[in-house]
Each structure stands twice: as structure tokens, then as C-alpha cells.
Automatic annotation (TrEMBL):
Cofactor(s) the protein needs: pyridoxal 5'-phosphate
EC number: 4.1.1.12
Full protein name: Aspartate 4-decarboxylase
Superkingdom of the organism of origin: Bacteria
Organism: Bordetella genomosp. 9
Pfam families, sorted: Aminotran_1_2
Biased composition regions of type Basic residues, renumbered to the chain: 581-590, 601-615
InterPro entries (UniProt xref): Aminotransferase_I/II_large (IPR004839), Aspartate_4-decarboxylase (IPR022518), AspAT/PAT-like (IPR050596), PyrdxlP-dep_Trfase (IPR015424), PyrdxlP-dep_Trfase_major (IPR015421), PyrdxlP-dep_Trfase_small (IPR015422)
Family: Belongs to the class-I pyridoxal-phosphate-dependent aminotransferase family.
Keywords: Aminotransferase, Pyridoxal phosphate, Transferase
């Protein structure tokens, strides 16, 4: 029969209480152990760090650095010390530098950067000096929220990519931050500091979602009442399409819900709001105008013609955007918070009770003589440095330069060549995964980003083998057993979809961080692992999760598991009901599907216990 796992069921039950990002580390250790004892190579499709980088904006950054050093030495040069780049005539000198180095990587891009500034009406010396002085990093960020020209460039990028080139009226104020995760911290903190959220408030989370949104909401400081908005829509064949039914979105009409948080496109399913879903949300905002929307749009560039909530309901929306995934720059820590200049949050602060306004006057009184006029986004900047250190707030200047160059690479790319290439990469990897699984591709959905996939083991189990097999799995295994089996037996690391607030037996795979052929191998490994369960079920036996009493030590020690990290949905995870014909077809195909190993196991068992094997 199937081999035994090192990790017992009781140990699995403890570990599945962890965040999926922490659980992943255990799986990596198991997969590495597998590498030591076999020729198999670990395939880690867990964390979504892309295995590509955008080259042109990086080449331009480094070439700009060379020019900046020549400008510094031009002021004075003591060998190991130089001056600060001077502003007068710097644009003219950059043009000359580009001509002299026209064959250098990044030169043509820098020439286009000059041209873009001219098109925008920037003063040439002011524009280039901002970039040159900042790439050297010789000053504090001024303005602290974001550099003047850089903010306009990144604003253009967001209007093109997050608003499909059709932005709403007015403009957005931007706050450059240390990646999307810093944005999350600053937003939650400032909303509470400014009385827009209170401990214990109702907060809606569109699920599944990036796990930290769940975990932050449960911190003692916030202790929000989570209202789950479940992506529980199913296709006719019982598979998930990961969209939100109308009755789920309708929960947002509750005036007691103070804030709704979405990752759009979602994580892990990677599905953006459909036009129908977007229209329903817009309609609810008209009836519930004080609802604050936080939208995390990091995967938006992977969906053609993507439109964020910031484009449709700008007054209520706080947008989080990270450059990490699209440009392959997780190590740069580049993100931005965008809030429309005419927004609901500022009006809500202005209408707070007198006692709250007096408290806030005292909190921000050292920054301005009229703290009541301070916008929420500027309060976020101050709050990010506990107000007292507001004068040193802001993202480092070299980071802002690289952010501007990343943004410019899309603004200058009229054919969207880079964006099309990133989409093709993940689509090709999706196709390889499905080939390995031996399954037909899911129906076309223009809203799917395909940066991740979320696969529900129980939907496959039910549609293929029916209720009896599903009951067998629930009785005998933890939902994470499949992940442990993949790691131990095949060296494949995937993530627990249940930890993202999805169905408990679901699995997240990133399509961004491995090569195409690897995903075919992952699909095959998943089939082999699933067939172990099927063979054991058909033989009337059990695939062992681990030897009784053996608890492998994986480098974490014996600390107790934290409280259950899963969001308790107000409805059970969707279990599709197969038609009678589907059930019959599944049972008829069972013997063929499990392969030779399964057939042999059934035959062997039937000699000893024919009745049991028949069951």
C-alpha cells in the first residue's frame, strides 16, 4: 500500500493553525529532506515571488547613478568625497551624457525620460535634478509624502494601469511607502487613530484574501467583527469560478460595516471583479455612502483592461498598490497609497464629535496651525512616524527614483509589450500545470489574472468519485495532509488555501516563481498524491499520515499552536452536488483513473477480503 508520512495527523492538526506562510516553512523543510535522499529537485510554488525582472528601468537606474556621480564630482572632488549635484543646466548635461554613452544599456530609456518630462511640462532642470539628487540619496524626502515630479509620474501610471486609461475626474494624492505591506499597516493604523475605525467594529473581508488582512483584523488592538464576503459562486459542473454571488456582496449594505477590504484581483484565486459585481458595489455605496473601501490591486496589471474600485468609487476608496509582482522587485519594497483629493474619509473626520476633534487637534497640532484641515493621507504620513518624527517621514529617495522609472517603463511602452509578456508567462505556466493534472482548462474568464491558482481538492474528489470518497477523506485526514504528502513524497511545496479564508481543502499554487516545465511536474505530482488516497479508499484501507506517536521536529520547537487562523464563514464551504450521471461516470472511471498501482492494490486486497475490496 501507499507509504507512510513522517508527519502524524495530530501534528498536522497543530500545524494547520499557523499562518499558511509559516506552515510553508515546515513544508520546505520536508521537501529539502526529500532532495537529500533522492534525485528529485524541490519545486517551491508557494510564495509568489516572481522569477522575472524588468530590465530597462533597472538599467536606466544604474546608468543614472553613473551620471549622478559625475555631477557630484563636478561640484568638488576630493577622491573619496564629492559635492552635491547642482541643478542649473543639469538637463543639458544629461543629454550630452546620453549622447556620449548612447550604446550603454539604459541610455535610450533615459532619453525617453527626458522627453516624457518635456511632454508633461516639467521644468527640465527641476525634473532631472530631482532624479539625480535622489538617486544619490543625499537628502531627506521632501515633500515627505512623495517627491513632486515622481508623484505625477506614478499618478499617470496608476491612471493607465488601475483605471484602464479612463480615470475619474480630479486627481489622487499619493503616499510612497515601503511596499504594499507597509501600506496595510499605515492604513489600519491611521483609520483607527483618526476615529474612523474603533476596536470591535464590523469590517467586511472579501474572501479568500491575503492572510495578513485576516490576521491584522484579529489583533487585540483592532479585534474587528469580520463579515465574510465569500467568493462562493459555482459553475454548472460544481467547480469554483471564484466570483461573488449577489447575496454575498449585498452584505455590504449593512450600515454597521465601517470598512470593506478586498484584494482585486483576489489572492489566491486571482480573479478581478466582473462588471456585474462592480455595478452592485457601486449601487451599495450610493445607499451606504460612509462605507470605506480598501482595495489592494497589486495583481491588476495581469488582467486586460483592468479597472480598480478607485476608478469607479474614488471618493470612498483607499487604493494600495505594490510594484513588487509586476516588475519583479520584491526586494525594493516599493508601494503607494492613493486617496482621491475629494474623499469621504476627510469629510467623516471633519464631522467627528467635538471630543474626538479636540483629541486630533492635540495629536497633530505640532505639525500645522490648522490641524483640522490636514488630509487623511497627510495624517498617514505623520502617523507612520508616530507624528513626532514627521519631519523624517517618507520613502527613501533612491527607492522613489526606481519607482518612477518602473512607472515610466509602462507609460513609455505604447504597445504594452512588457505587460503582455508577463501575462503570457503565467498563462503558459497555467497550461503546463493543467497538462500535468490531465484536466481540461477551465472556461475562459477575462477577469482572471492567473498569477496564482486555487484548486479545491474536495470539488475534484466529489465530481470524480462522489460522496463516499469525500467522507472517507474527511474521516481519515486533515485538509493539509495533501500538502504534506506532496512535500514529503515529491518535493513539491504549495500553500494551504484554507489559511487564506478559502475552502479548507483548497490549495494555492503560484504561477510566477518557477519555469513552465516545473508546473507540468507539479501537476503530475498532485495526480500521484491524489491517486494514493483513491487506491487506499478502493482497497478499503487508509494511507497513513504518519507513524503513531512520531512527531518530527522541523526546527520550530514545541511552542503551542496559536488560535485558529481561519475566518469562520457564515455559510459552509461550497460542496457541489454531482448529478446522478456524473456519479455513475465517476464510479465507472475510478478503476481506470488510479493507474496500475491502484489496480494492483485493489486486486491484492480482493484476495484477502473480497467484500471489503468491492466496497
Amino acid at each position: 500500500m501507499a507509504s507512510t508520512l513522517r508527519t502524524t495527523r495530530s501534528r498536522q492538526k497543530e500545524l494547520e493553525q499557523l499562518s499558511p506562510f509559516e506552515l510553508k516553512d515546515f513544508l520546505i523543510n520536508l521537501a529539502r529532506d526529500r532532495e537529500k535522499t533522492s534525485t528529485a529537485i524541490m519545486l517551491n510554488a508557494g510564495r509568489g515571488n516572481p522569477n522575472w525582472i524588468a530590465t530597462e528601468p533597472r538599467e536606466a537606474f544604474f546608468l543614472l547613478g553613473h551620471f549622478a556621480m559625475s555631477e557630484a564630482r563636478r561640484v568638488f572632488d576630493y577622491g573619496i568625497m564629492a559635492g552635491l549635484p547642482a541643478k542649473p543646466g543639469i538637463a543639458r548635461r544629461l543629454r550630452a551624457f546620453i549622447r556620449e554613452n548612447r550604446d550603454a544599456p539604459g541610455a535610450a530609456f533615459l532619453d525617453s525620460v527626458l522627453a516624457y518630462g518635456k511632454k508633461k511640462g516639467f521644468d527640465p532642470d527641476a525634473w532631472i535634478h530631482e532624479l539625480v539628487d535622489s538617486v544619490v540619496g543625499d537628502n531627506y524626502p521632501v515633500p515627505d509624502r512623495m517627491l513632486v515630479h515622481t508623484e505625477q509620474v506614478v499618478h499617470d501610471y496608476l491612471m493607465k494601469e488601475m483605471c484602464d486609461g479612463r480615470p475619474p475626474k480630479g486627481k489622487f494624492d499619493l503616499f510612497a511607502v515601503e511596499g504594499g505591506t507597509a501600506a496595510m499597516c499605515y492604513i489600519f493604523d491611521s483609520l483607527q487613530q483618526n476615529g474612523l475605525l474603533k476596536q470591535g467594529d464590523k469590517v467586511a473581508l472579501f474572501l479568500p484574501t491575503f492572510t495578513p488582512y485576516i490576521e491584522i483584523s484579529r489583533l487585540e488592538r483592532f479585534n474587528f467583527q469580520i463579515v465574510p464576503i465569500n467568493a462562493s459562486s459555482l459553475r454548472a459542473d460544481g467547480t469554483h469560478d471564484w466570483h461573488y454571488p449577489a447575496d454575498e456582496i449585498a452584505k455590504l449594505a449593512d450600515p454597521k460595516i465601517r470598512m470593506a477590504v478586498t484584494v482585486n484581483p483576489s489572492n489566491p484565486p486571482s480573479v478581478a471583479f466582473s462588471p456585474v459585481e462592480m455595478r452592485q458595489i457601486i449601487g451599495i455605496i450610493r445607499k451606504n455612502p460612509d462605507l470605506i473601501l480598501v482595495t489592494d490591486d497589486v495583481y491588476g496589471t495581469f488582467v486586460p483592461d483592468f479597472r480598480s474600485l478607485m476608478a469607479e468609487v474614488p471618493a470612498n476608496t483607499i487604493c494600495v498598490y505594490s510594484f513588487s509582482k509586476n516588475f519583479g522587485c520584491t526586494g525594493w519594497r516599493l508601494g503607494v497609497i492613493a486617496i482621491h483629493e475629494d474623499n469621504r474619509m476627510d469629510r467623516l473626520i471633519a464631522n467627528l464629535p467635538n471630543r474626538e476633534r479636540r483629541r486630533l487637534h492635540e495629536r497633530y497640532g505640532a505639525l500645522t496651525l490648522e490641524p483640522e484641515k490636514l488630509k487623511l493621507i497627510d495624517r498617514m504620513v505623520a502617523d507612520s512616524r508616530d507624528v513626532a518624527l514627521n519631519h523624517t517621514a517618507g520613502l527613501s529617495l533612491p527607492q522613489q527614483v526606481q519607482m518612477a522609472l518602473f512607472a515610466l517603463s509602462h507609460l513609455l511602452d505604447r504597445k504594452d509589450s512588457y505587460k503582455q509578456l508577463t501575462m503570457k508567462l503565467v498563462h503558459d505556466r497555467r497550461d503546463a500545470l493543467w497538462r500535468g493534472l490531465g484536466l481540461p482548462l477551465p472556461p475562459e474568464d477575462k477577469q482572471r489574472a492567473w498569477y496564482y491558482v486555487e484548486l479545491d481538492f474536495m470539488v475534484w474528489a466529489h465530481n470524480t468519485y462522489g460522496d463516499e470518497f469525500c467522507d472517507y477523506m474527511r474521516r481519515n485526514y486533515e485538509p493539509v495532509d495533501f500538502l504534506f504528502r506532496l512535500a514529503e513524497k515529491s518535493g513539491v511545496v504549495l500553500m494551504d488555501g484554507g489559511g487564506f479564508g478559502g475552502p479548507p481543502w483548497s490549495i494555492r499554487a503560484s504561477l510566477a516563481n518557477l519555469n513552465e516545465a516545473d508546473y507540468a511536474s507539479i501537476g503530475q505530482a498532485m495526480v500521484e498524491a491524489a491517486n494514493e488516497y483513491v487506491a487506499a479508499w478502493q482497497a478499503g484501507e487508509k494511507v497513513q499520515s504518519g507513524p503513531h506517536g512520531v512527531v518530527p521536529q522541523l526546527g520550530v520547537g514545541g511552542q503551542p499552536a496559536p488560535a485558529d487562523r481561519k475566518v469562520a464563514s457564515d455559510q459552509p464551504p461550497p460542496e457541489p452536488v454531482a448529478t446522478r450521471s456524473a456519479k455513475k461516470a465517476g464510479k465507472k472511471a475510478a478503476g481506470k483513473a488510479v493507474g496500475k498501482a491502484a489496480k494492483g492494490a485493489v486486486k491484492k486486497a480482493s484476495k484477502k477480503a473480497p467484500g471489503k475490496a468491492a466496497r
